[in-house]
Design goal:
This protein has 385 residues and is of the alpha/beta class. It has a domain at 4-69 and 99-172 and 267-344: FAD/NAD(P)-binding domain, CATH 3.50.50. It has helices spanning 12-23, 48-57, 60-65, 88-95, 104-113, 160-165, 231-238, 246-251, 283-286, 295-312, 316-344, 351-363, 366-377; strands at 4-8, 27-32, 43-46, 68-69, 73-76, 82-85, 100-103, 120-122, 126-133, 136-141, 144-148, 150-153, 173-183, 194-198, 202-208, 214-221, 259-265, 274-275, 278-280. The strands form 4 sheets. The chain has a 7-stranded mixed sheet with strand order 6-5-14-15-16-13-17. A 6-stranded mixed sheet has the order 8-2-1-12-19-18. It starts with a strand and ends in an 8-residue tail after the last helix.
């Protein structure tokens, strides 16, 4: 079996894949078109499955040390009434770790630090990918030609590699919602670690960080491409009557910190995550809506599963076939569940439907809610030899 790989995409999934491949003895080059690797963005929650994958990659302890456990919080109405309460301690007893919150830039930095600087080709645009013979994949980056035994396409939801491999696939589609989010510029007095608030066609949530700052996000049902001249002013207007600490979170945010993105997804599942010696990973393979907080966790699962398959498979082709069999059913099921969660959460706008949803949530026993969470969180990664 060969032992050289090119990873296209330097996001969380791409860096994790590179770490995993290096741990099994492969030489890896990560090609990223951005001139600076992702030390920007908002925050992220990592569940037990993502943390276990990070443990297997050797960076779990560092990530936990930089994170804040999510023990308190839950889901509320705009008036502040609780629909569900989070029992982070019960979840920790069930799976061995709480969900944690961490700035995305911190997580990205920890992953990057686990790779040698010479493995990162920053500011390099990956050109067309060619399988020049059954055992070699070629990609041109600027004036540099890279030949490898494997190419990992971790180039995100708009993956060019995926488009070349599956030209008939419809690609990403708009979910019907957009998200505005930011990290506060200062510490905020929060009584909970994590909250979601569901109104009529709108959601506001926060993740508390270790240093007292917080990430907040607002999800709105908006036509694709909608943008506001003053996003922060628009959010203050829309959420002015919602409960504390929502106004305080907005007040602690500078206008330049607000990010606005349409929420897109791969609604049509791919028929395979591999073609020859090219493998798709993370959003390039299964971009999903963020309603379960599983996007990054599934990419981390992909990364360690790929490394384990290559460590034990008799050939690259056999290893990639195993990866596809293990990852495609799970990730596509999680994507369907995330889509359904969005339809029953933020996207509900009819007053009767919202009232029925809220009543059902208040009447659901906490143990039942924990079991639903465990369906996605209680995943155990393969061991890297």
């Amino acid at each position: 079996m060969g032992n050289t790989a090119v990873v296209v995409g330097g996001g969380i999934g791409g860096l994790a894949a590179a770490i995993g491949l290096r741990r099994i003895g492969w030489e890896v080059a990560v090609v990223e078109r951005a001139s600076m690797l992702g030390d920007a963005g908002a925050g992220i929650s990592l569940a037990a499955n993502g943390l276990r994958a990070l443990d297997g990659l050797g960076v779990g302890a560092a990530v936990r040390a930089a994170s804040r456990g999510q023990y308190s919080g839950g889901t509320r109405t705009p008036e502040g009434r609780w629909l569900t309460r989070m029992d982070g301690a019960a979840l920790e007893r069930a799976v061995g770790t709480p969900i944690v919150g961490i700035p995305r830039s911190t997580l990205h930095g920890l992953l990057r630090e686990s790779l040698p600087a010479e493995a990162l080709l920053i500011g390099s645009e990956a050109g067309p990918v060619e399988q020049i013979d059954p055992g070699t994949v070629r990609v041109t980056c600027g004036g540099t030609v890279l030949d490898a035994d494997l190419l990992v396409a971790a180039d995100g939801i708009g993956s060019k590699v995926r488009g070349d491999l599956f030209p008939a696939h419809p690609g990403p589609v708009h979910s019907g919602s957009s998200v505005l989010r930011a990290v506060t510029g200062q510490a905020v007095d929060l009584r909970t670690d994590f909250e979601l608030t569901w109104g009529h066609g709108a959601e506001f949530g926060h993740i508390a960080f270790q240093d007292g700052r917080a990430e907040w996000h607002a999800v709105l049902g908006l036509p694709v491409g909608t943008r506001f001249a003053d996003p922060l002013a628009e959010l203050r207007r829309r959420f002015r009557t919602w409960h504390d600490p929502i106004p305080a979170l907005l007040d602690a945010t500078g206008p330049a910190a607000v990010l606005h993105h349409d929420i897109n997804e791969l609604r049509t599942p791919l028929p395979s995550y591999t073609v020859g010696r090219i493998v798709l990973l993370g959003d390039a393979a299964h971009a999903m809506t963020p309603n379960l907080g599983q996007g990054a966790c599934q990419a981390l699962e992909d990364a360690i599963t790929l490394a384990a398959a290559l460590a034990t498979g008799p050939t690259v082709e056999a290893a990639l076939a195993r990866y596809d069999v293990e990852r495609r059913p799970r990730t596509q099921a999680v994507a369907r569940a995330a889509r359904q969660a969005g339809r029953m959460g933020q996207q509900l706008s009819h007053p009767l439907a919202v009232a029925l949803r809220n009543t059902a949530m208040r009447l659901t026993p906490s143990r039942a809610a924990t079991r639903m969470i465990l369906r996605h969180h209680a995943w155990v990664p393969p061991r890297l030899n």
